[in-house]
Design brief:
This protein is an alpha+beta fold. Helices cover 37% and strands 17% of the residues.
Length: 332
């Protein structure tokens, strides 16, 4: 369809659309996002930009491992929002209406959600860096994730309940590495190709996870709104949640979070137990690097980053891996 107008959106709302404004939030690369004001209230509508299956390497990777698709996630966001809000830590917008098919007035999948007050955390902004270093933010996030991880599952898959036994996770991860490693940027990266066979073997030989949890593999500061006081005011992007090893999400968090000790303090506040990350850190970091379509900082910045959670119990030494030396900042 052509440029979106109030008239285009009117059939989606029961009351008159008075204002329509395009937003450029830091948390969303998958959707076009708009602020909508009607006679009855203020809302945000997210409209999928591209309906093709291979719209991004990230979603391709989520589908390969967890069977997740964006369209399927639309149907589950209402229940997921209600569940996360019950944790009473970081607010999540209420989902008011969602359609995953193209059979609607705007002919694209969309979600209408509650408008939340807060400051967008734009990538690489001063606020972004402030949020990564703030002690209270780390503590707040630790409590939030520990409460989410408290709910355990005996399978991995999508939040619709479609999944596989945990015993199949190693082979599923190995196959995903093969596929993502053959995609354009990864295939052209000599450093990726050099270590790809090692990590495929490591995935095949890994011990299956003992349990899984609700995880989000793009949980960056940009997915939140910040308050004036500097804490997280709301988590506004929940579409990529899946059921998988919580270690995967924690390995992602440790790459950008500045205060690991304060995070763990918050995590332990609820009585949660800390999983061992040493054994699988490099494997999971490599998977994340491919999932994010080989970020410009380079493979070494991801695999060798010294940004790590302190771990008291080291069960085994990590297996050696040939590491390309590229330099660059210590973030994904």
């Amino acid at each position: 369809m052509s440029k979106l107008s109030k008239e285009n959106l009117q059939p989606l709302f029961a009351s008159k659309v008075l204002e329509l404004k395009s937003l450029t939030p830091g948390y969303d690369n998958t959707n076009d996002v708009y602020f909508v004001r009607t006679d009855e209230g203020q809302y945000v509508i997210k409209i999928l930009k591209d309906t093709s299956e291979n719209r991004s390497v990230f979603w391709r990777g989520l589908h390969l491992v967890f069977g997740t698709t964006y369209e399927a996630s639309i149907n589950n966001q209402k229940g997921l929002s209600e569940y996360l809000n019950k944790l009473n830590v970081i607010p999540v917008p209420r989902i008011l209406k969602a359609e995953s098919s193209l059979d609607n007035p705007i002919q694209k999948p969309y979600v209408i959600m509650e408008w939340m007050r807060g400051i967008p955390v734009l990538n690489e902004s001063e606020l972004f860096h402030q949020m990564t270093q703030d002690k209270e933010v780390a503590y707040q996030l630790g409590i939030f994730l520990s409460k989410i991880h408290a709910r355990q599952f005996d399978y991995f898959g999508n939040i619709e309940g479609q999944g596989r036994p945990l015993s199949e996770f190693p082979e599923k991860l190995a196959l995903a590495l093969k596929t993502l490693g053959a995609m354009r940027k990864a295939a052209e990266d000599r450093n990726v190709q050099r270590v790809l066979p090692h990590f495929i073997r490591q995935a095949q030989m890994m011990r299956p996870p003992k349990s899984s949890g609700l995880i989000m593999l793009d949980l960056w500061p940009t997915q939140f709104l910040a308050s004036q006081q500097g804490s997280f005011a709301a988590l506004v992007d929940i579409e990529s949640y899946a059921i998988g090893p919580i270690e995967l999400e924690l390995v992602l968090i440790e790459l950008w979070l500045g205060n690991h000790g304060k995070f763990k303090e918050g995590y332990f506040e609820t009585g949660a137990k800390w999983p061992d990350l040493e054994e699988l850190r490099e494997l999971y970091r490599f998977f994340l690097y491919l999932l994010y379509d080989c970020p410009a900082q380079g493979l070494d910045a991801c695999i060798d980053s010294r940004s790590k959670f302190p771990q008291r119990d080291r069960l085994r030494k990590r297996s050696p891996v040939p590491k390309p030396r590229l330099g660059g900042p210590e973030m994904l």
